[in-house]
Amino acid sequence: MSTATLPQIISYGHALDMADDKIGILRDSADAADDVAELHRRIAQDGYLYMKGYLDRDQVMEARAALTDRLAAAGVLDEGYPSIEGVAKPNSGYIFKPEITRDCQPVQRLLYSGRLIEFYEKVFGESVRHYDYTWLRAIGPGKGTNPHCDLPYMGRGTHKHMTCWLPYGEISYELGGLMILEGSHKRMDLLENYVYRDVDAFCENRTKDVEKVKEGKWTFTGTLSHNPPAVRNKFGGRWLVTEFEPGDFLTFGMFVVHASLDNQTANRLRISSDSRYQRASEPIDERWVGVNPPAHGPNGKRGLIC
């Protein structure tokens, strides 16, 4: 698709500049699926791989059905519609429910066995390990996710792991998928003072920090900015977007700046998951492994003397 045919893109309440040097289309790397050297070249150059139609569509839709049934049971869907449609109750907003992926076999099979694991074994060149924690998001009408990198949330092990963002259903520009800031992983001059910080670290000798942690708050949220156009103007490159279908996934490293489009529909949820993969031989962040991972809870905090 040419950028000339794109609708106005909205992210975190901001209309993006739609000039050709500021907005673009994600590169589809499905053509290089069996060429490991080319995949590595594109990861180095682009920071991401967009694998269109790589996964089995029916398997993805089976996982969607299981998730929407669980969302319905959690009381977040409009009972006037079939649950598979993912229609939200009014004012649903941002629904973050990682717990509904536990023991959800269609999701576990899709993410942690078969074709997806084989893909990461190919990319990493050895056996892989995945986080036991799955980030499941059902985003209602309104603002999406603001610009950030993933490392501040999961940087206590290797820094070479990768995120897999996977949509459960068709995601139009109106429904609002993920977008990548082109070349941002190469801008360490701008990222260095941000990306190595840990959202769960705090200064235990600072009373305000200690009080925030006691209240379950972060002293550093991991957010890079609330203004996607300003981030682009600072970093250069283009915001890269596309529309997604079941079977697609987008994978990228820890230093890639990304965000999401806003959900501009009247009542539909944008359902997606984030899962993480790494070489089995490298250290892993203890917050995201085990039967009941600590995550960003009290047991995941790390007090420092600042």
Task: Report on the architecture of this protein.
- With 306 residues, the protein is of the alpha+beta class.
- It has one domain (13-186, 239-280): Jelly Rolls, CATH 2.60.120.
- The protein is built from seven helices and 15 strands.
- It has helices at 36-46, 57-73, 105-112, 114-124, 188-195, 207-214, 228-235, and strands at residues 10-11, 14-15, 23-25, 48-51, 94-96, 128-130, 135-139, 162-167, 178-181, 201-203, 239-241, 249-253, 258-260, 270-279, 302-304.
- Strands 4, 5, 6, 7, 8, 12 and 14 form a seven-stranded antiparallel beta sheet that branches.
- Helix 2 (57-73) packs across helix 3 and helix 3 packs parallel to helix 4.
- The longest helix is centred in the first third of the chain and has 17 residues, at 57-73.
- It is globular and about 50 Å long.
Bulk shape: globular
Q: CATH superfamily assignment?
A: q2cbj1_9rhob like domain
User: How many domain modules?
Assistant: 1
Taken in chain order, the helices and strands follow as EEEHEHEHHEEEEHEHHEEEEE
Helical/strand content category: alpha+beta
Topology, number of strands = 15
Task: From the 3D structure, determine the CATH topology.
Answer: Jelly Rolls
| Mean pLDDT reading | 96
Fraction in helix: 10-25%
* CATH domain class: Mainly Beta
> Whole-number radius of gyration?
19 Å
- Architecture (CATH level 2) name: Sandwich
Low-confidence stretches: none
| Largest sheet features | 7 strands, antiparallel
| β-sheet strand percentage | 15-25%
- Please tally the helical runs, counting DSSP H or I stretches of 4 or more residues: 7
First-residue to last-residue Cα separation: 50 Å
